[in-house]
Amino acid sequence: MAMNSTPLTGAPAPVVAEAIKDAGARSAPPAPQPRRPFPRYFRETGWRHLIGIVMLLFAAFPLAYVLSASLNPGGTLLTANALFQSVDIGSYIRLFEDPRQPFGAWFVNTLFIGFTTAAGTVILGALAAYAFSRMRFTGRRFGLLTLLLVQMFPQLLAFVALFLLMSAIADIFPVLGLNSQLGLIMVYLGGALGVNTYLMYGFFNTVPSSIDEAAKIDGAGHARIFFTIILRLVAPILAVIGLLSFIASTSDFILASVILVDPDKQTLAVGLYQFVSQETARNWSVFAAGAVLAAIIPVALFLALQRYIVGGLTAGSGK
To answer: Could you say which of 1.10.3720.10, 3.40.190.10, 1.20.120.530, 3.30.2420.10 is the CATH number of the domain covering 99-314?
Structure first.
């Protein structure tokens, strides 16, 4: 006991020297690692960096070109070949000057249709996915297969039938018929619910059913379990479905141009086409400026929901 409590200063000189050496070794910075030869670096990790840089340039060039074209006062694509040779914000100002081309109304209409479609897709798809995942009923498997098979036929193949259908509905319910934004939202919901429901179904299956059973023991019903427990656990897939639905509805051109006739009710995808559709009045600079402004909201949503995207897309892939 006396030897264990002896201070370091009373220890023999070799012991003190060894302790000082160990302390110095611990406090000294680690020795720098020798640099790898370039052939070895390129073989192990360098080629990945090279591919990443090439793909980054490949993806960034169209964005830079559109931004440069929007700042070019020439109004033609030929003069926009030299990136950022001249900078002028006049194209952004002209977007809001012509009352025959109400860019502000198109922007508001796009946001209304996009957010309403996204919210409806998320709510209805989540309800259907919960029913398929947690309840057992006759026709459940047939319904899932039907949802999958219906999505093999895109809406583009049925736009003539949709036009005739919306025209007939307009005679009875004008608010849901042709030239109606609500009617266009209903068309989007009908086309998006199938694949999104199937995607949510796979994610719902990853949530343990023991959570539902424990809640039922406490007296909770299906509605309480769904709205207070399940929705919080499946937030990643809800964010992904909402984002994908918003982007799909705001970037659609065919159905929006077929159903929406009044210029004041059209979306950005249809309205911006007017700047380049006329043979003698094409203005690519203004068109590019409108495209830049139209991309702000989707990019902001993508950045805000970025942490949900990977988990939401991959968690249900094994089901």
So the answer is: 1.10.3720.10
Determine the Cα–Cα distance for residues 39 and 46; give it in Å rounded to an integer.
9
pLDDT band at 261 (very low <50, low <70, confident <90, very high): confident
Any idea what the Cα angle at residue 133 is, between residues 131 and 139, rounded to 5°? 65
| Tens-digit pLDDT profile for residues 54-70 | 999 998 988 888 888 88
Confidence check: pLDDT of 10 > 60? no
Neighbours of 55 (CB within 10 A): 10
User: How far from 271 is each of 37, 95, 280, CA to CA, in Å?
Assistant: 57, 11, 17
pLDDT for the residue numbered 113: 95
Please determine, for residue 9, whether its predicted confidence score (pLDDT) is greater than 80: no
Give CATH 1.10.3720.10 domain extents, the chain.
99-314
d(CA 246, CA 298): 8
